[in-house]
Amino acid sequence: MFSIFATQPTQFTLSRHFHEFRHVHAIQTMDMADAAGIVTYTQGFTPYIENTLKDNALSLPLPRLHESDHDVTPVTVLAMLEFPNVDTMNGTFKSPEYQATSGAHVFANPEVIYITESLESLAEQARTFGLVNQSSHAYRGLSRARLVFALAPQSTSPFKTQWDDHATLVHKLIGEFVCQTEALPLSQLPMVEYQRQISSNMTQEQLDGVLDGSPFRQAKYRVTNGGYEELAFLHMGLLVSFVKLYGDQLRASFTTFVDMQPAVNSTPPSFAIICDETRIVDSTTS
């Protein structure tokens, strides 16, 4: 998975930023998806949905990026492109077709870049929705609310092992959350999907080589360790309820294996964002 956490260009109004991302870039990517080998492309936009933080006095388990590092402006965009492999991704970024279209189009300023591998299979992802015999495929196309935690490892911790322990806790909390409303009609059940993405085993030089020729090479943070996890909810009200109920437990768990300090060198601070979720390309359902 290729993931971009990006910020609003200073020359853009918010409405133009949204238009360039959600419309222009989305259409460009859809048009080239088959030729580029893009399996899925998912967009998240934060500014409109983040008002809920203020409206609900919601404190996230990790700070938002600009609260962690005062040299960084707020993340407004999350773009996630899934390729079959890194070679395909590399070829796409270096192709003349890409560089003349999506690669030349400015929709945001890249801040944090990840190239990752999923730690959950599709079956495990579907299981975390909280419904028996339901596949995540059935819910693609919905605009859900997404809570994303970017995780920088503590230097002395066995990160993957402790992250697995944390994931066990998250699954338990999701189960409790679902059980609280299991008597509600199906359409009102608190659908929750949990996924983890761990940084691929690449050196900084290898990652930069993949990004060469793309606008993402200039990102402030090009991450080669750690990863991120995400919880996707059927709507924003469920996200708010979940964080209010379990935010303290998540925060306590993060402190056992996640670096909470400001950014160092090429490693960004740990941070959180909330955004909407819109699936632009999904070749897995065709």
TrEMBL record:
Q: What is the lineage of its organism?
A: Eukaryota, Sar, Stramenopiles, Oomycota, Peronosporomycetes
What name has this protein been given in UniProt?
Uncharacterized protein
Species name? Phytophthora pseudosyringae
